[in-house]
Amino acid sequence: MPSPIEIDVYVSPYCNRCKTFFRHLVAIRELTDQAFAIRERSVIDHLESAVAAGVRATPAMVVNGRLLLSGGTTQAGLHRFLKSALETENVNGLNDR
Length: 97
What we know:
Blueprint: E1 5-11, H1 16-31, E2 36-42, H2 47-53, E3 60-63, E4 66-70, H3 75-92
Parallel strand pairs: 1-2
Antiparallel strand pairs: 1-3, 3-4
């Protein structure tokens, strides 16, 4: 069985768009049968890893170490993007590390 996909969401303190983005992502996880782990990471507390991943704006979504999305989006847009990203991750075998 493949290991879950790791999703790091980099957020800024006091950023309402970041809070909304993270809530949307958690809600989407509840609606899907795809296994993925979500971690909320403050860019202040995790600056080195954010820079290493290429984060330049928040919110930012890093999937298995790759920056895939930066900036806000609607829940429907995030759901479509995440579904596509997870399918690509499965095709590439990145979740089988």
